[in-house]
Specification:
Mean pLDDT: 86
CATH class of the largest domain: Alpha Beta
Strand order of the largest sheet: 6-7-8-3-9-10
Strand content: 25-35%
Number of strands: 14
Structural class: alpha/beta
Largest sheet: 6 strands, mixed
Helix content: 25-40%
Number of helices: 11
CATH architecture of the largest domain: 3-Layer(aba) Sandwich
CATH topology of the largest domain: Rossmann fold
Low-confidence stretches: none
CATH superfamily of the largest domain: P-loop containing nucleotide triphosphate hydrolases
Distance between the termini: 29 Å
Length: 321
Amino acid sequence: MIDVKNLSKDYSIKRKGAGLSGALKGLVTRNTDVIHAVKNLSFHIDEGEIVGFIGPNGAGKSTTIKMMSGILTPTGGSVLIDGEDITKHRKEVVRNIGVVFGQRTQLNWDLRLGETFELLKHIYRIGQTDYDKTLDVMNDILGIKELIDKPVRQMSLGQRVKGDLVASMLHSPKVLFLDEPTIALDVSAKYSLRKFIKEINQVRKTTIILTTHDLGDIQELCERLIIINHGEMMEDGNLKEITDRIAPYKTLVVEYYDEEAPSHVKCEMIGHEGNVARYRFAKSDITAADIIADLSAKKSLKDVSIEEAGIDDIIKIAYGN
């Protein structure tokens, strides 16, 4: 559905000295710095995938999304959406994509929500039957019809996000770009957004590219992860495989009835305080069940628990490469 080849974006920034003298010198001699926001990105996304596209601030995520959605023109490379180059056939391609920017709404501030939808219906030339059918589907997922007659300026942030999601899906796009859609949302609004993403993907097989700093979104929605930093590809693969490679260890926490803790040949005891011992083991070498069985054969266990590396720690390591 999406084929990105050697995608690049450069910006030229004029540099001048401080004060009046710097401004005058800048009239005669212009110094420019070239910023490489995105550098030769290449990847392929199949129809119906939900892909987490993440990176630290300034990594080039939003710039890439804007090039993929036709808002920005690449300096180099190409983006094919459903086989068509978006830079050469922009009008045709954008009919098949939807975009939601968490920090910018496409709703008209001075209209009722329903009037904004009607406006988009005419812009995309959507038939009344298809429009009503899509609105019914969106209402089942988000309960949007209770907001139809409400002016956009009177809506809460969460309600506006719901409106933006529906607006992006009115023309039934094959591809949906969500750029930090959960920013500043409360728990209830995030739940609605995640429900929306799952159901749209299941019901309509919509291909979804999600950029977010909320790692809960990544864990709950995405099987595949693309990580970029400084405009370059850092990781591209299955979330579980990336997690297992970056964090191949687990920690078994065992509570005994006294302060004596036995050792295990395939574990490293990384902590022992009172009657609680912590064992670190490689997930590829042995299972927690085997360790528990071996330890319980040596000594009675009061309680056990398993700790895995958190998604935030894994992503932090991946960002630093």
